[in-house]
Every structure is written in C-alpha cells, then in structure tokens.
Amino acid sequence: MISLLTSNFHSFLVAFGYTLLSSIIALIASTVLGTLFAILQIVPSKTANVIARAYIEVFRNIPLLIIVMFFYLVVTKIVKIGGFTAGTIGLTLYTSAFIAETVRAGINSVGIGQTEGARANGLSSWQTLRIIILPQAFKIAIPSLGNQFINLVKNSSILAFVAGGDLMYTANNVAATTFDSFNSYIIVGIFYLIITLPLNYYMKFLETKLKGMA
Amino acid sequence: MEKAKKRKIGIISSIILTLLIIFGVVSASALAENNSKHVDTWERVKRLGKIRWGVKADTKLFGLMDTKTGQPEGFDVDIAKALTVQLSKQSGVPMQADFTIVTSNTRIQLLKNANIDGFIATATITPEREKVIDFSNSYFKAGQSILVKKGSGIKSIKDLNNFKSTIIGVAGSNSVINVKKFAPKAKVLALGDYGQAMAALKAGQGQALTTDNGILYGLATENPGYTVVGGTFTSEPYGVAFDNNQPEMVKQTNKALKAIIANGTYNKLIKKWFRGVPGLDWRSLEK
Amino acid sequence: MNIIAAGIFDAFTKNNVHYLLGGLGITVGVSIISVIGSLIFGSFIGIIIYEKIPFLSRYVSIINDVIRNLPLLLIIFFVYFVLPVIGIYLPVFWATVIAMTVFESTMLAEIIRGGLLAIPIGQTEGAGSVGMTNQQALLNIILPQAIKKMIPPIISQLISLVKDTSLAVGIVLAEMTFRGQIIYAQNSNYTIPVFIALAIMYFILNYGLSLIARWFDHRMAA
Fold it and tell me: Where in this chain does the record put each ABC transmembrane type-1 domain (chain A) (predicted)?
C-alpha cells in the first residue's frame, strides 16, 4: 500500500485537489442557488412557487449520474464545458435542490410571529427576510447544511464517470494500470475520510452545542 | 443496579465484537492466502463442464448485447463459442460456454478473482499484462488508430501532439496508455464505454477518439460524418486471456485456435462480421 | 436539436424498450431488498448507538461513521473486486445489494439515532415513574413518537437509494442505466434520447415514492 501510494503520490494529490475544488465550488454555488429557490417557494406568487417546486422535484428525483451526463454530453453542444465543469455544475444543481428544502424548513421554523412583529415595526418584507428570518433560518439549518456538504464530497466521486480527474477517477486508472485494486481503493478511501470524517465530528459537536443552547 | 448491568453488557459485547473482528481479519487473510494458491483452469473447466467466458456487450462487431435475446453477439463471442466446441472435443468432456459481461475496466480483476475462467474481450497482448495474466496466441490482428470528424484537417496522430488537443479513449484499455507515447502533449480523457466516448467526441469534448481500428470502423459505420484516418500506429494483437500460470489451458486453447483456422470456421466468422464494414479490407484479416 | 430528434424514434424499438424495462425491474429489485436489509440493520445499529451502552455504543458509532463517510461508489467497487480475494464470489446483483445495504444501514442508523434523541428525556423518566422499565419505555413511549418523526427523512434516504443503484453500472449490473448504455452502443445517435428516457423513468419512480411519503405525512399528522 505504501509503495503504491508513493509511486502515484503526485496523481493522488492532484486528484485530491480536484475533489476538494469541485466540492467547495459546488458548496458555495448550491448554497446560493438553494437559498434562492427556498425563498421562491415562500414568496406570495403562485408562478414562483410552482417554478421552485418543479426545479426541486426534478433535481431531487433524478440520479446525479444522469444529470452530470446530460451536462457533459448535451449541454456542451451549446456551451463548451469539460468533464470537471460538467460534473461540478451537475453537483451544484443536484445539491441545491436538497439545500432549498433544508433552508425552507429552517425558514418555516422561525415562526410567523417574528415576521408579523418585524412588519409591524415598519420593515419591508424583503428586509424582514434578510435581517430577521434568513440569519435565524441558517442557524437552525447549519447541521443539515454540514451533512449536505459531506454528501457533496462523497457525491463528487461521480466525476469519475466524466473523466473529471477526481479521486475516484484516479483510483480507477491506478487500479487499471497497476492491477492492484485493493490498495488503490483503500488509499482513496482514506483520502475521502480525511475530508469527511473531521467534518462529520464537527457537525455532531455543533449539533449537541446548539441543542444545549436551546 | 441497572447502570452496572448495562456497563457489564457493554464491556462483554465490546470484547466479543473485537474478537469477532480479529477472527474475521485473521481468517480472511488465511482464506486470501489459500485462494491465492494455484488452481489449474484447465482442470476446473473439465470438472465443471463449462467455460465461463468474459465478453464485451458495448462494442460493435466484437461483442454487442442483442436487446431481444439478452445475449451478447459479435466476433469475440463467436470465437468463444467455436473454441468451447473445439476444447470439448480435445478434452473428451462435453463443455458449454457461459458468458459474463465485462468492460475494459473490470475484466482483469474478474479474471484474477476467478469470477470468469477466461476472457475474449478485444484485449491486446502486452508485456505489462503478461506479467499478471496469461495469453493465448493472437486470434486477431488489430492496430490502434484515430477517428475524427470529416474535414477536421487532422490526418494522423502527429497532428494531435500539441497542448491544445484532447484525445478521447476508454478507461482501462491499452489504447489510452499507448496514445501518451505517440502524442505526449495532448490531453487524454478516459470514459466508461465506447458509447459515451463517441458521444463525447460528437459533443466536441475532444478532437479524436482513439482505440483499435476494428472498433473504430464499427463506430464509423453508424456515424457517417466521422472517419478513421492515418492508418494504424501500433500493432494490437488480440489474445484470449487466462489467469496467471495456466500453461495447460493456454496450450489447449492454442491447439483449438489452430484447429478452427484449419477447418475454415475462423474465416467464416471473419466474413460474417467484417464483410460489410466500409473502409476495411476484410480479406486481409483472413488466416 | 436535430441530433436529439434523429435518434429518438429509432432508439426505442420494441426490443429496446422491453430490454430497458427489464432493467427497471432489476433497479426495483435491488432497491427493495436493500431497503429491507438496511432498515433492519440500520435500526439495530441506531438503537445500539442511542442506548449509550458503555464502550459498545462508541465502538459501533466509530465504525458506523467511517463507512457512512465514504462514497457509495467506492464501497460498491470494494465489495465486488475485493471480497473475491478471500473466496467470496458474489454475482453482480448480490454484490450491489450487499454494498447498498451496508452503506444505507449506516445512513439509516444515523437518522434513527437522531430521531430517538429528539424525544425529550423527560418522557423516559415519566414512563419510569409510572413503573415502566427502560425497555418498555423505549418500546411503548419513545419508539412510536420517534418513528413518526423519522419517516420523512427515512423516505428521502430511500429515494437516494433508488437513485444510487445507478452507480452499479461501474461493476456492470444490468440495471436501467447499464441497459441504457447497451442501447446507445448500437448507435451513438441514441445516447441523448436514452439519457432523457432514463431521467424520466427515474423521476417517475422517485416522485411516486415522495408522493407516498407525503401521504404518510398527512395521515400521521391527522
């Protein structure tokens, strides 16, 4: 295992970078997009509600593999995008649907009384949302958002299917050239755990802390 | 009282769990040791009365799934059937051919794991592979080439040796390793199968698709806007693969190969699969 | 757009449609068996972690966390390619079922532990004061309430499971996505229509599941 790691160390390290980069970009983009669709779900406009609902249902119910393939093979006919970009866009859209649900649940739990209070104090509905509701909603949603990020890192292994250069892609290539599948998979497994396991324990810690505060 | 009891249960079951894990690891490594012991493939197929062949299901002309019957069909599959008939005759034991679908990415691992006895799956005989598996004599002479869009101006692999070019291949195939020698500056993308690779070429993810000419001709047949250029730049003799150190199985297979060439079966199969392929001189493939 | 239109009629011949629907059967089969397996193991593991049994709970929790934080794709490859090294030969179908069950059990264990924790401790104490043992309290008071809370996340986990069966194309399981690949191997013009058809089939399957989840939710609330 050590010899396989050292002889392919550069490949694994670059792949680790790609996995991390894809995950971070997708995290930021999907949080923005997810919040947008969460808001669209609660604004008093039937059209906006329906659009948001449709978006969320479509991306929640189709496998990530299919979404990524669609971007890699179809969308690229209109706008040129490579495997890494297609994979990251797919990850973003897929994850944003889950984040939209999480944020919406957060907004709902803030409570109608606060909205009414804020409006009575002369805040516009946009101000109420931005200053009063969203900060609280995010606080409530933090543990689930953290879990979404862990899922995102794991799901980034989908890049392997579109030659995205990530850890899983590299593991397959190393396994195919060295014929040592056992150690290749163990090594990338450890690389994934380096990202996900600390996050996992940090989220659990936050969860208990928030619970203690409540 | 209850707390002490819980503690006791916890300690005891933790110890049991630890012992189970240790036992598991120890017996697993013992089993692994035992399994890595040599098993003679020829003896096994005679004993079981069947040969489990790995073949492809996504490669036109060589191994493509017939969606009506659910069975793969192609030159490789027919060779496997003919060899099985011939091997039955040689051993005196009636044997049947069983087919398992493999991809370039899974075939060697499946063979090493003895999920299959051998594979006939457009596999090139290479010195690297011969270190880990055994090959029969070559049953088909292919060569690596490139497929490009008509009118792209690319005439051979040399035109792709620059940092702007991207070449598409299939993961686990010899061609993605080879192409780096002939166009070291180009970027190489390895996709899951030929369907995806072809779709990626059409989508403009790369300028050329590289693999063995036989497979490329198959892809060119259905995509008139694309053409094979520059001839072959490597020699890719396909072999029947078996696990490491199987001299008897290899010897019997070579004998069977000779027999099906001698009795005309081989040339009949070449004609059956390659006669209609545009741009390919199927007569040159006959033996 | 004409590339999409070109393949759409030729791709879906009677044989190809039959073949693809057969793949749907395998997708559903793998899903159902894995769901049952992971519900059983997941509850078991979840309860062990929740019960805070000295040593054991922490021990099981660490193993659970390690597996849960790996990509499922990696576990699938591992089960299929590495178990045979110790002489366990699994057909692709069962390798997928086992990998999915192992992975989804750990995900469900976490949901179940969370659901149990969400019930205030006061209720266990209350049950104790009316003479129930801890086990009785768990069975009669905590579990029914916790299950109510857990059902929506469990169902969305199951939807994930159905979607994740598509990852088994990596080890050549002849499920829906793989069969789609076989169809477009006939002619690469079929690639895009096939992907669209796959998206629609998965959507119907999973949206159906989420409608069931919502119906459950309503009934529970009523």
Answer: 16-203
Q: Cα(C186)–Cα(C190) distance, rounded to whole angstroms?
A: 8
Show which of residues 137-176 on chain C sit within 8 Å of chain A, judged by CB atoms: 156, 159, 163-164, 166-167, 169-170
Contact C35, B86 (CB under 8 A): no
State how far the Cα of B199 lies from the Cα of A161, in Å rounded to an integer: 13
- CA–chain centroid gap for C14, Å, is 31
Q: What is the dihedral of CA C17, C18, C19, C23, to 10 degrees?
A: 100
Q: CB-based contacts of A104: which residues, under 8 Å, 6+ apart? A: A38, A41, A42
DSSP-assigned letter for residue C139: I
| Pairing mode of beta strands B144-149, B208-212 | antiparallel
Asked if residues B58 and B215 have their Cβ atoms less than 8 Å apart, the reply is no
Q: Which of B7, B14, B67 to mutate to test binding with chain C, by most C CBs within 10 Å of its CB? A: B67
Whether B120 and B86 map to the same domain: the answer is yes
For C198-211, give one letter per residue: b (16+ CB within 10 A) or e: bbebbbebbbebbe
Q: Which structure tokens are listed for C18? A: 């039959």
Structure tokens at B194: 């030929």
Q: Say if residue B283 is exposed, middle or buried (CB neighbours under 10 Å; 0-12, 13-18, 19+).
A: exposed
Report yes or no on B30 lying in a domain. Answer: no
Alpha helices in chain C (DSSP H): 2-11, 14-50, 56-68, 72-82, 92-117, 121-129, 134-137, 143-164, 176-186, 191-221
Angle at C209 between CA C207 and CA C214, to 5 degrees: 90
Residues B62 and B98 reside in one and the same domain: yes
- B182 belongs to a structural domain: yes
From first CA to last CA, the distance across chain C in angstroms is 49
Given this model, what pLDDT does residue C7 score? 61
Backbone dihedral angles phi then psi of residue B125, each to the nearest 5 degrees: -75, 115
Q: Which CATH architecture has domain A2-213?
A: Orthogonal Bundle (1.10)
Measure the CA–CA gap between C184 and B195, rounded to whole angstroms: 6
Residues B81 and B56 in one domain: yes
Could you read off the pLDDT tens digit of each residue along chain A, which spans 214 residues?
A: 788 888 889 999 999 999 999 999 999 999 999 999 999 998 889 999 999 999 999 999 999 989 998 888 888 878 888 889 999 999 999 999 999 998 998 888 887 778 788 888 888 888 888 888 888 888 888 888 888 899 999 999 999 888 889 999 999 888 877 777 778 888 999 999 999 999 999 988 887 787 666 5
Q: What are phi and psi of A8, to 5 degrees?
A: -120, 20
DSSP, res A178: H
- Kindly report the nearest CA distance between residue B221 and chain A, in angstroms: 21
Burial class for B134, CB neighbours closer than 10 Å (0-12, 13-18, 19+)? buried
CB distance from C187 to chain B under 8 Å?
yes
What residue ranges do the domains of chain A occupy?
2-213
Q: Is C184 on the interface with B (CB under 8 A)?
A: yes
CA distance A200 to chain B (A): 23
> Which tens digits make up the pLDDT trace of C94-117?
999 999 999 999 999 999 988 888
Instruction: For residue A165, give how far its alpha carbon lies from the nearest alpha carbon of chain B (Å).
Output: 9
If you count residue pairs, one on A and one on C, with CB atoms under 8 Å apart, how many are there?
Answer: 97
Q: Å from C78 to nearest chain B CA?
A: 11
Contact A11/B at CB under 8 A: no
B16 at A interface, C-beta within 8 A: no
List the one residue out of C74, C78, C101 whose CA is nearest residue C88.
Answer: C78
